[in-house]
Specification:
Elements (H helix, E strand, L loop, with lengths): L9 H24 L5 E4 L5 E6 L6 E5 L2 E7 L1 E6 L2 E5 L3 E5 L3 E9 L6 E7 L2 H11 L13 E5 L2 H11 L8 H18 L3 H8 L4 H14 L7 H8 L3 H12 L3 H19 L4 H7 L5 H12 L3 H11 L7
Antiparallel strand pairs: 1-2, 2-9, 3-8, 4-7, 4-9, 5-6, 5-8, 7-10
Helix pairs in contact: 1-3, 2-4, 2-5, 3-4, 4-5, 6-7, 6-8, 9-10
Length: 320
């Protein structure tokens, strides 16, 4: 159930339940209408995608960009390292930095498919909103996980609905979509974990430095990684970078780079006409045996066998 502003029970609780159900039903109806099939569907609204799946799926490893995900129907779980985050319509998920995660739809049927709204997040826009709204600076605490769940309030759901309804009025999107998007970002910042986003958006905060370190590793993932080089780029000591990086991503910088390399190699094998050895070389592996060994450790099977299975069973991948 969607979290409620009034306690359940009595006429007011019943009315709140009915309103919550009506909001979810409308959002699910809109998403279903604008998603003709399973997969991720970009929309005419900038930074907004709609996701659909007609049945539970296999775990899918993706590099998730910063985003808000609100489920209208069905359920999903996201894994970051060894941590598992199950969620449904009662909670929304936020990814605040680029993270290699594993997503799996856990409840969906052809008659009641998994339906999800996704809004890509821009830290610069968040920082501008904090400034203009007079939001207090985020609490001075260490960087936290770059992924979290928060209760979906009626106010948040109303804001999402206002944005998605614009798909029925495309002529209004250029003028009204930025306003609706801004309200969603405001609701995020005002939420119970809004301070986490504030950390990423605050200039020269530890969390923002980790976000810059993530960006640097993404740009140089095929090169040998020296923690001293990354630390110098983001003005941190190597030991502090290692500690804070793990606090945000649940993995070390080297583990993060390895995930990027292997997921990019998998993408190359699926989308480009390259053999296994070439894919490994392109993402930075000099030893084919090491590439095969680490690929199998992450994905469960050797590259060639995994590629055959993917082509037979996976029509596409869903984001967070």
């Amino acid at each position: 159930m969607i979290s409620r502003e009034q306690p359940a029970g009595g006429p007011s609780g019943e009315r709140a339940n009915q309103k919550d159900s009506a909001r979810l039903a409308e959002l699910a109806s809109l998403i279903e209408r604008f998603t003709p099939g399973d997969g991720v569907h970009p929309t005419a609204i900038p930074h907004v995608s709609l996701l659909r799946a007609a049945r539970p799926g296999e775990p899918l490893r993706v590099l998730s960009r910063p985003a808000l995900c609100v489920i209208a129907q069905g359920s999903k779980q996201v894994m970051l390292g060894e941590e598992v985050y199950p969620y449904d319509a009662s909670h929304y998920l936020v990814v605040s930095v680029d993270l290699p995660i594993t997503g799996q739809v856990t409840r969906a049927t052809p008659k009641a498919p998994y339906l999800c709204f996704q809004l890509d997040l821009d830290p610069v826009e968040l920082a501008d909103l904090i400034l203009k709204a007079g939001q207090p600076a985020p609490m001075q605490r260490g960087p936290s996980r770059g992924l979290f769940l928060s209760q979906t309030t009626p106010a948040m759901l109303d804001a999402v609905l206002r944005l998605v309804r614009l798909l029925d009025a495309p002529e209004d999107i250029p003028m009204l979509a930025p306003l609706a998007t801004r309200e969603i970002l405001y609701r995020l910042l005002k939420g119970e974990h809004g301070w986490r986003l504030g950390q990423i958006a605050t200039e020269n905060s530890q969390a923002q430095r980790i976000a810059r370190a993530i960006g640097w590793i993404k740009s140089h993932f095929a090169e040998p990684l020296r923690i001293e080089d990354v630390a110098r780029e983001v003005h941190m000591s190597p030991s502090s970078l290692h500690h804070q990086f793990k606090a945000v991503t649940a993995m070390s910088p080297l583990q993060y780079q390895k995930r990027l390399r292997l997921q990019e190699a998998r993408r190359l094998l699926l989308s480009a006409d390259v053999d296994v050895a070439t894919a490994g070389f392109r993402v930075g592996y000099e030893s084919p045996s090491q590439f095969n060994r680490e690929y199998r450790r992450l994905f469960g099977t050797p590259p060639g066998q995994d590629l055959r299975r993917l082509r037979e069973t996976e029509p596409g991948s869903l984001s967070a």
